[in-house]
Amino acid sequence: MEISGIGQDVFSAYTLRYGNQGNIPNSQNSASAQMPRISISSSELRPGELSPEEKKLVEKLKQRDREVRAHEQAHVSAAGAYARGGPIYTYQTGPDGKSYAIGGEVRIDTSPESTPEKTLEKARVIQAAATAPAEPSPQDSAVAAQAAQMEAQAATEIREKKREEKEENESGSSSNNRSNSLPSLSETLQKLYDQSFDPKENQPSFSLLA
Question: Is 147 helix (H, G, I), strand (E, B) or coil?
């Protein structure tokens, strides 16, 4: 399986591919990467019953077909909504005239989500999708590593967001405490009035200092 980035963003999208890069004349999808083509010379092809060599070749193609389909389907199932469509297969025609899948690819959406929390969740799904096949390839591991970086970045953003929210809450609480500890203007005036009230005159008395 190979992986190739598409788009300008490193986390825009990846294509999970089964097989090695190479040109296959009988391919129905020249854009995908494939396993090496098993060559069949014209001398080996003849009408009627297949030769022992041709039968062995057909069995190899059948096995390859099963492996490719199982591999790609594992990616699709694990990727869920982040899979951009179903698997795209590359075919080769066997000596029996039938087409067999010898390569395939699945595109996975790896663009960041609207929030760090959603991006974190998505990164974990991508990692699971990349390593879903029974035998993940080195390229599968590379995709999983990219998704792990994506997860780490999202986790950092979440921690930073929580830290900022905590600081804002603490700052607001401190301001409220200072406001509550200071007497209001009306309380101050009332206190002065009470202290300067002369019961004999039944009027408030203030001393003005020049």
Answer: helix
